[in-house]
Amino acid sequence: MASDGKKRILIMDDDHSLLEALRQMLEQHDHDVHTVDNAKEAVAKVAETDYDIVMADYRMPGEDGIWFMKNAKLKRTTKVLLCTAYANREVIKQMFELGASGYLIKPFDEEEVLRNLEFHGV
C-alpha cells in the first residue's frame, strides 16, 4: 500500500483507451494507478513496486495473463483480478490456480469495477 493510504493498482491491458479510462476513473477514487500494455513490463513493475491489486488482461500480443501469473513475483497480499473479454472456463480456472482472486468480463462499467475492488479489500 502507498504510504499516504492510497491503494496502488497496476492495470495490464493492450487496449490503450481502456487503460486510460480505468486510470482516470480509479484516480478519481483516490487510488495510485500505474498502467502497462504488456505482460513483460507488468512483471518488471511488480518486481519494483508493491501493488495492492493487479488488474490483468488475459489476451494480449506477446505474453498473456497466464505468462504474467507464472512469472510475476507477487507479494502474498497482492490481489490479481483477471479482466478479459475472453470468458473461457479453462483460462479462468488456470488464472485462479496461479493465484488470481477474481475476474471481470469485458465490457464492464465503473460500478462493477468499484464493487469488485471493494470486495477484494481495495
Describe this structure in words.
The chain has 122 residues and is α/β, with parallel strands linked by helices. The chain has one domain: Rossmann fold. Helices cover 40% and strands 20% of the residues. The protein has five helices and five strands. Strands 2-1-3-4-5 form a five-stranded parallel sheet, with helices on both faces. The longest helix has 13 residues, at 16-28. The protein is globular, with a radius of gyration of 13 Å. It starts with 7 loop residues before the first strand and ends with a helix. The mean pLDDT is 93.
Number of domains: 1
- CATH class categorisation: Alpha Beta
Taking all residues together, what is the mean pLDDT? 93
Stretches where pLDDT is under 50 for at least 5 consecutive residues are: none
Radius of gyration: 13 Å
The total count of helices amounts to 5
What is the terminal-to-terminal distance? 10 Å
Globally, the shape reads globular
Strand order of the largest sheet: 2-1-3-4-5
Percent in strands: 15-25%
